[in-house]
Specification:
Order of helices and strands: HHHHHHHHHHHEEEEEHEHHHHHHHEH
Shape: extended
Bound molecules: heme C
Structural class: alpha+beta
Radius of gyration: 32 Å
Number of domains: 4
Helix content: 40-55%
Largest sheet: 4 strands, antiparallel
């Protein structure tokens, strides 16, 4: 009668005979308990540190699997083979015909099956949790802290802060999975060897969000009608006068069930395919726009410099052709970097910067738009320059209401640190926002009244095409009085 313990002993002997197996066994034995306990803790939601997850899933997990592979390699192909002695025809015949030997084989199989199931369970658990870890906002946004700090900060302050990075950056299906992981490995190397771009270039190679990722949640064909936009602003005068711009935005629709595609989301209707040719990487210099109808007819709008580029001459490798999608307008749905004006207005409207401090908008604007080499330098200069200016010009304020000034300084510093990241060479306007027409970019890349068909039709810049301006920088807009009843909207 052969006891289980003997089999285990034979197994261990087999392992110890081969150095390869032995090394593998040591690896698995050490990593096994750490992995098991950590994975259980992680599943309970007790692990928040992104570096811990990295060590767990991207170092210990693979080491465990590597160890297992070594054990088996050693047992079957190296020295351990002699002890286990599988695979030869005679050996197997002998084992199966002799009843006592057969008992031994049975137990070996039993042990092997048991160990395999255990290993598969651990490997599955680690792969599953590891997969979730590499898809987490923690990993994408915080692991490479300095690198992703700007994107992560802007993301956290955006309407999409509850949407995981992968939901926009990685599409559904196996193809995207492979693409994303290969890209991820490249990025880890770039960080490890400090070869990443500063700032990170847009578009992100391979992981640019696609139309279908947005359409998991949004359905522009169902949008309809117009929407009122009220923008709060503050003038650079002594009182930091609060003014408003009111626009009726023609959101429109992509067309649905007989409803006609119209307004701004007319571009995404299935019957309107817009293809544009650009000659720079940022896609700001567009020399041709084609509107292709379902029957194949094509309306070609040619830019002023069309002749120069049409036949491919004078183009660099940065040139390209694109079918227009959501991201050609919504290129900043979540990494929204504000302009200096917008950043300060946002802090003034929430009261983070008190509007009662005279000239605070003007002085803040002056100091945050200087060029800084580090975040520390920026914060220090903002504080010292504002303190100095108010001490000189409003000594009463500094004397009697120092905390108010300090609060303002903090708000101004935040306006800077939420939008500028000198360490990654991101300053005001490094990343352009195409939603609108700041600096004649965005919509005006095409809507410039200069892209023209043979028949002389242009892509219109008519100020009422996209919105109706109901008030512009007015302290008490009549229109708000009309729709809000009292006109006192503070
Ligand atoms: C709502 C969708 C969405 C979410 C969620 C999202 N991104 Fe993005 N991301 C974008 C778009 C759109 C771009 C710009 C693409 C373009 O212009 O080609 C972008 C660009 C980037 C870039 C390139 C640099 C830049 O600012 O253009 C990085 C890096 C990036 N995202 C990282 C992240 C990280 C990290 C997270 C999670 C913390 C995240 N993204 C979440 C949509 C998203
Ligand atoms: C997982 C779901 C999800 C995905 C994917 C997603 N969004 Fe959103 N989006 C939302 C939610 C939810 C809101 C509303 C947030 C709120 O009102 O606070 C929103 C809001 C918006 C808004 C309005 C923002 C505002 O200022 O009110 C725009 C524009 C937008 N998304 C565009 C996009 C684009 C473009 C993409 C693709 C790159 C995208 N979204 C991908 C869920 C998603
Ligand atoms: C031609 C440019 C353009 C295209 C293409 C475009 N949008 Fe928009 N979208 C806008 C503008 C402009 C607004 C309103 C202005 C704003 O939100 O600041 C808007 C508003 C939205 C809103 C907010 C609607 C609301 O009622 O508040 C969502 C969500 C949105 N778009 C999603 C999408 C999605 C998803 C796609 C792609 C299928 C898309 N958009 C394509 C320009 C565009
Ligand atoms: C890549 C080029 C391109 C860009 C960028 C672009 N458009 Fe257009 N847009 C077109 C073309 C082409 C037409 C059709 C012109 C025509 O047929 O007269 C059009 C038509 C429109 C229309 C009229 C739709 C209708 O009801 O017939 C609106 C509104 C509009 N665009 C808004 C916008 C807004 C807002 C933006 C920026 C957020 C924008 N567009 C950016 C190419 C563009
Ligand atoms: C192709 C569409 C389109 C056309 C044409 C257009 N606009 Fe706009 N405009 C927009 C969009 C979209 C926004 C909103 C930008 C945002 O959400 O920040 C905007 C915003 C504005 C704002 C408010 C900006 C702010 O932040 O205070 C003003 C003012 C404005 N437009 C003036 C004009 C004038 C004047 C014209 C005519 C020369 C014009 N627009 C033509 C699409 C257009």
């Amino acid at each position: 009668m052969i006891r289980l313990i003997d089999i285990v002993k034979a197994f261990v002997r087999g392992i110890s005979r081969s150095k390869v197996s032995l090394f593998g066994a040591i690896l698995t034995t050490i990593t096994f308990p750490i992995l098991l306990i950590s994975v259980i803790l992680d599943i309970q939601g007790l692990i928040h540190n992104p570096y811990y997850g990295f060590i767990l899933y991207l170092i210990l997990g693979p080491l465990f699997i590597f160890g297992l592979i070594l054990v088996f390699l050693g047992l079957f192909f190296f020295k351990g083979k002699e002890e286990v002695g599988l695979f030869t025809h005679e050996y197997l015949k002998e084992q199966f015909s002799d009843p006592t030997r057969f008992e031994r084989v049975r137990r070996i199989i039993f042990l092997a099956v048991f160990l395999t199931i255990l290993n598969i369970f651990i490997v599955a658990l680690v792969s599953y949790s590891g997969y979730h870890y590499t898809e987490s906002v923690q990993f994408c946004g915080q692991f490479c802290h300095t690198v992703m700090h700007p994107e992560y900060t802007a993301y956290q302050n955006s309407p999409h802060s509850r949407v995981k990075c992968v939901e926009c950056h990685i599409g559904a299906g196996a193809k995207w999975f492979v693409k994303a992981k290969i890209s991820g490995i490249k990025q880890l190397f770039a960080v490890a060897f400090n070869t990443y771009e500063r700032p990170i270039e847009t578009p992100v190679k391979g992981l640019r969000p696609a139309r279908e990722t947005c359409e998991e949640c949004h359905r522009p064909e169902l949008f309809h009608g117009d929407k009122l936009y009220i923008k709060d602003k503050f003038l650079p005068d002594e009182k930091n006068t609060h003014v408003r711009t009111v626009l009726l935005m023609k959101i429109g629709s992509g067309g649905f069930k007989g409803m006609r595609a119209q307004g701004i989301h007319w571009h995404v209707a299935p019957e309107n395919k817009i293809i544009y040719k650009h000659r720079d990487r940022a896609r700001e210099e567009i020399y041709e726009v084609d509107l292709v109808k379902p029957d194949g007819t094509k309306i070609v709008f040619k830019g002023a410099d069309w002749e120069k580029y049409a036949n491919g001459d004078n183009l660099t490798s940065e040139a390209g052709v694109r079918v227009m999608d959501c991201i050609d307008c919504h290129n900043r749905p979540t990494h929204i970097y504000l302009s200096p004006d917008e950043a300060l207005d946002a802090k003034l409207v929430t009261g983070d910067i008190p509007t009662s401090i005279p000239y605070i908008k003007r002085q803040a604007l002056e100091v945050i738009t200087k060029k800084y080499d580090s975040t520390e330098e920026a914060k220090n200069t903002i504080a010292t320059e504002l303190r100095a200016w108010y001490k000189e010009n409003y000594p009463d304020l500094v004397e009697n209401n120092a905390p108010l000034l300090e609060q303002a300084i903090k708000g101004v510093q935040q306006a800077f640190t939420e939008n500028c990241f000198p360490e990654m060479r991101i300053y005001w306007n490094t990343y352009k926002n195409f939603l609108g027409h700041r600096d004649d970019s965005g919509c005006f890349r095409c809507h410039d009244d200069e892209h023209e068909t043979e028949a002389g039709e242009t892509i219109s810049q008519d100020c009422d095409l996209c919105h109706v301006i109901l008030a512009e920088d007015e302290a008490e807009p009549e229109i708000l009085k009309a729709i809000q009843g009292n006109g006192n909207c503070d």
